């Protein structure tokens, strides 16, 4: 589904943000990416839907070669949902409008059909009573669930999460994680950048650790947490797991 | 000075003043409408990724903002006939006002667009919207709100700038004031009558701005 081969990316000429990335994500797989800040995690998943260009190597997502001359990005982005740390909901639209905007205008769904689908998905993320609210009237956790619903309403084949709970108050983190857990259990292909190791333990098929733009270690959650091979991974895990 | 103002003379010229007032209103309204359309187009061009289109937009904005309105007005007034374009003074006046304010309005709209967080563009981009859809559905509706107050400010400037059109013999408020001054040798009466007319228009626009900001407060999410 997603195939990185020797991918390299620089910001400008000096900052080498991604180094020789090799990563394969199969259909239905849930991959958690963690690592210290500035290690390139966000940049990695932003490459997957073409938000960031890269300079060398190969990246193929759902059959689309992102390194080709002009990849069909719009078509790809319909199939790849993206959830941002800062939600990025449209503040001038209600929750329901946020969710139905792309299905109507990008997929070309009739309005009634899009709204029926939108209601169903908002209800699924626990926001049946919030459809007519504007983002400014919702809590952070509710906004992020609307943002997830907005991506799901496009019926994507892949979902990317860029630190979806980092901007939330602690008591709201679980309501968002619960939605992601149920999504993972339904078989969605997901790459999740997060430091929520409880989530990783529960649903990840694989955990990837990044540092300074490179993938240092990757493995099944049980091995990754119990028996990390690399010194930097051990160091990182000791910092985030033991307060 | 105003104590011995000759109200009788002013009242004799009321029909002329009314005509001038209406003409000023019309020139301003037509000029602003044109300026708004030009402003949106010029702004659209100036933020284009395509380089030569952007060049056209930026060149227009720079040219207008760097030269005086009076010079632009004379340029059109004397220049257009040499190109074989013969237009009434009134029309030339509207074109000059629209071209002039259009550049400033382009900058106002551009600042509105730049005030929108980057995340909005990225969210729209990652949902697969086209450039035109992103602008129409997500960016412009949000960009308009912060631009309303500066736009009304620009409208106030445009109304006062329209007084320059008296120099190409368009009969508007200032021109009527000059007429009173020249016919009766009463410049103060002429100027006061002119000023009252502009004051009325100013307060109309100010009321509009106030009702907008009230609307804005009560409807902001």
Automatic annotation (TrEMBL), chain A:
Q: Which residues form a coiled coil?
A: none
Q: Which domain of life is it from?
A: Bacteria
The keyword ATP-binding belongs to this UniProt entry's keyword annotation: yes
PROSITE patterns per the record?
A: ABC_TRANSPORTER_1 (PS00211), ABC_TRANSPORTER_2 (PS50893)
An MF annotation (GO) of this entry: ATP binding
All copies of the ABC transporter domain together span 2-237
Against Gene3D superfamilies, the record matches this protein to: P-loop containing nucleotide triphosphate hydrolases
Q: Is this entry keyworded ATP-binding?
A: yes
A Pfam cross-reference name: ABC_tran
Task: Recite the UniProt keywords alphabetically.
Answer: ATP-binding, Nucleotide-binding, Transport
For this chain, the family text in UniProt reads: Belongs to the ABC transporter superfamily.
Can you name this protein? Answer: Amino acid ABC transporter ATP-binding protein (PAAT family)
TrEMBL record, chain B:
- Entry's Gene Ontology molecular function annotations: transmembrane transporter activity
The entry's keywords:
Amino-acid transport, Cell membrane, Membrane, Transmembrane, Transmembrane helix, Transport
Q: Which PROSITE patterns match?
A: ABC_TM1
User: Which cell locations does it reside in?
Assistant: Cell inner membrane; Cell membrane
Q: Which range is the signal sequence, renumbered to this chain?
A: none
The entry's cellular-component GO terms read: ATP-binding cassette (ABC) transporter complex
Q: Which family does it belong to?
A: Belongs to the binding-protein-dependent transport system permease family. HisMQ subfamily.
Official protein name in the record: Amino acid ABC transporter permease
Biological source species: Aquamicrobium defluvii
